[in-house]
Design brief:
about 750 residues; mainly beta; Elongation Factor Tu (Ef-tu), domain 3; 6 domains; six-stranded mixed β-sheet; six-stranded antiparallel β-sheet; 9 helices; about 15% helix
Length: about 750
């Protein structure tokens, strides 16, 4: 990167690299997102091998900070017929594999940052639900995907377990016939109905058996083999039984009751904290639930932390936490039994009724925790069981407590409160050098921008412009945002006090400077940052006082104006975009609105007259004729921030005034005086109507940029219609000649 000027000074470096990233076993259903340095560089739905583009030059703050990411990337899904990648073949000698069976990405020597030579970590979000082993459609595809809020999807835990058992590539490789299909489908139906999907990554850092145990622990289930069939059975631990239908263990089939205990509640856990990974953000989350009755009974909190990284949302994490809390905070009876072969069908997860009169137990529902079937020399079965309270709650009357932390950086947004205009003479006098200002041509003009922050963390903005209405935009300047606020009430033309709210950067407001409200410039006389109270001078510089609606923006513009510093002439067209910046970069040019500016000799135009009075009253609501309108001179070359209530300043040599009286209802001209040098006008027409009196300044053929337009109810008895009509015709003839 080089700076401006003829020297070509180096200001930093951009870094480019080619990469081959192995992601996971493939193919997958879709690649959904690519994150670089914990920021989203690309998002979409790529379902097949293809090439995508990443254009995030401001991802890490642009060239002023650590640059961004720009380039193309080949997605290699790992299909069975996948050929060698052309880029890798061109860069590596020798035979190039096709990398089949693996999802991988090839970054085609794109930009990966600026001013920092270290590669930031890359992460990918993929979805693999419907593609089974070797790319085939997965088992029981109708219930494989479980929809999550926000359009995300998770995988049915039964399907995860099924593939771990049957996948011959990275799984245990059992034939599908070794799986109890009906009971696996029943488990899949249960999880699907509960909306209990998982998003899990197995990195082969633990045995597949351990990974399977993690899956069933997440969902409250057991996975084992039925000794009667030899088939794998997946059993959700739920209240999915009728108590009267359960088998009974009692003195008729229990050989020995070796142990029975009911733990004390004193040391029982009464709070569970569950950590999980939020699938929408990729960030860790945590939820905590409590048994308030147990906490009160025990006189304190006894907590336990559980890790369930496959839970994709806080809602599912809350339900899982409640499931665990119910089981762990309840004093459940536990029993160890030795029973005869009648209990051969009981396996871990099975439920039975226990009758044991000596302990006062009658039809107590017990869940088998472990079963040992002995050997040929011992015909008894050893069973460990506990009272059954397991199950996944359908409803939890709790929500995840927000962390209270919010990302302080927001994405750059368009500046909705902005001014793109031709600079007034006052600004040119402040910004141009003495010689340039003295030699300023009458048809010269300069760009002038003011903008308010669209968000609290916006830092500054860049000005992009192009001459005319075609061609490329280029950066022509940069500037800071102006302090701003909003009117709490409407503002009448004669009002000199107001209150603003929603103040941004109020500490930077300085009395004695100017602000912009709509098309009016006002002088800031006093400002209370705490209350938002303002006193102002109205109609400053080349503007007149106007009415402003409630919530109108107030831009405290002085000292916060931007320009490209280029002199332009009358009639030139310039199109401008304001590109705001935050810690996350610069607003994309395509997202910034376009403002078109046609230069019109603003700096050379005379100021409108000031201190308008009709019958001695400012902005009267009614006027009885005859009456007199008066005003004061103003001089653009001699005054600074005096408002339109100032007494005579000047006038600038050659200044005249046009006065026109209209019927405001029909907009028909009633009377006028054009080209007069005096500061008064007699209103002496007959009739009753709603009048609009307009007064403007003229100098050297240029009319003031704004004019006064005062509306009032007028009435006067008609004295001599013929004389007044003749006067009207004569005056209008003069008006037409002067205008031409």
């Amino acid at each position: 990167m080089t700076g401006g000027g003829g020297g070509g000074q180096t200001t930093g470096y951009r870094y480019f690299i080619g990469l081959h990233l192995g992601v996971c076993s493939g193919p997958v259903d879709a690649l959904l997102e690519i994150r670089i340095g914990d920021r989203t560089a690309w998002s979409g739905v790529a379902t097949a091998s293809s090439t995508i583009s990443i254009s995030s030059p401001e991802l890490f703050g642009g060239d002023e900070k650590e640059g961004g990411v720009v380039g193309s990337i080949d997605i290699m899904m790992g299909d069975a017929a996948q050929a060698a990648n052309a880029y890798l073949t061109s860069k590596q000698t020798g035979p190039q594999p096709g990398y089949r069976g693996m999802l991988s990405l090839v970054w085609l020597r794109g930009m990966i940052g600026s001013n920092n030579p270290y590669l930031k970590p890359w992460a990918q979000k993929v979805r693999r639900v419907l593609l089974g082993w070797q790319g085939g459609i997965t088992w029981y595809s109708a219930k494989a995907a479980i929809a999550l809020p926000g359009g995300e999807s998770a995988m049915n835990p039964a399907h995860i377990a099924y593939e771990c058992l049957t996948n011959a590539d990275w799984g245990m490789g059992y034939p599908p016939a070794q799986v109890d299909d009906a009971r696996f489908r029943a488990a899949a139906d249960t999880f699907h109905a509960e909306g209990l999907g998982l998003c899990l990554l197995w990195a082969r850092q633990s045995p597949i058996e351990s990974f399977l145990q993690i899956v069933v622990d997440h969902v409250g289930a057991v996975l084992n083999q039925d000794p009667r069939t030899g088939l794998f059975v997946l059993k959700p631990i739920r209240a999915d039984y009728v108590v009267g239908d359960l088998p009974i263990l009692d003195e008729s089939n229990i050989v020995a009751l070796e142990n029975f205990e009911r733990p004390s509640t004193y040391e029982a856990t009464n709070e569970i904290s569950v950590t999980f990974d939020e699938v929408a953000t990729g960030l860790p989350g945590a939820v905590t639930v409590q048994n308030l009755a147990a906490i009160t009974s025990q006189g304190g909190i006894v907590t336990k932390a559980m890790q369930y990284p496959g839970l994709p949302t806080s809602a599912i994490a809350l339900r899982t936490a409640m499931r665990d809390l119910l089981a762990i905070s309840t004093p459940l009876a536990r029993v160890k039994l030795r029973v005869n072969r009648q209990a051969y069908g009981l396996i871990p997860g099975s439920v039975f009724r226990l009758n044991w009169p000596k302990l006062g137990l009658s039809s107590v529902v017990m869940r088998v925790l472990d079963a040992s079937f002995g050997d040929l020399s011992d015909g008894t079965i050893a069973i460990s069981a506990a009272e059954d309270v397991f199950g996944l709650p359908a409803s939890v009357y709790a929500t995840q407590q927000p962390s209270g932390w919010a990302d302080p950086s927001s994405a750059p947004a368009p500046a909705t409160v902005r001014v793109v205009d031709e600079a007034p003479l006052y600004e040119l006098a402040r910004s141009l050098g003495a010689s340039d200002y003295a030699g300023l041509a009458a048809d010269a003009g300069y760009l002038y921008t003011v903008a308010a922050k669209p968000s609290g963390d916006s830092t500054n903005y860049r000005i992009h412009a192009r001459p005319g209405s075609s061609g490329a935009f280029s950066e022509v300047g940069r500037d800071d945002f102006a302090p701003t606020g909003q009117l709490t009430a409407s503002l009448a033309p004669g009002a000199t006090s107001a209150t603003v709210t929603n103040i941004i950067d109020g500490d930077m407001v300085v009395p004695g400077t100017y602000a912009i409200i709509g098309a009016e410039i006002v002088r800031i006389d006093t400002f209370n940052q705490t209350t938002g109270a303002l006193t102002i001078g109205r109609g400053v510089l080349d503007t007149v006082a106007a009415t402003h609606a409630i919530s109108a923006a107030v831009l405290f513009a002085e000292s916060y104006t931007g320009t490209d510093g280029v002199e332009r002439v009358d009639g030139d067209l310039l199109q401008v975009k304001i590109l705001t910046r935050t810690g996350k970069g610069t607003l994309a040019e395509s997202s910034a609105p376009t403002d078109s500016l046609t230069f019109d000799q603003r700096a050379a135009r005379p100021y409108p007259p000031g201190r308008v009075r009709i019958g001695g009253v400012a902005y009267p609501s009614t006027v009885a004729g005859p009456s007199t309108a008066s005003w004061s001179h103003r001089d653009r070359t001699a005054q600074n921030l005096q408002g339109d209530e100032a007494t005579d300043i000047g006038p600038e040599i050659g200044t005249t005034y046009n006065v026109r009286l209209y019927d405001n209802t029909t907009s028909s001209l009633v009377d006028s005086s054009v080209g007069q040098s005096g500061t008064s006008y007699a209103i002496n027409v007959g009739g009753s109507f709603t009048a609009r009196l307009e007064i403007e300044s003229v100098r050297g053929g240029l009319i003031s940029r704004q004019k006064h337009a005062v509306v009032f109810a007028y009435s006067k008895a008609i004295d001599d219609v013929t004389t007044e009509a003749a006067d009207l015709v004569t005056t209008e003839s003069s008006d037409q000649i002067t205008t031409e």
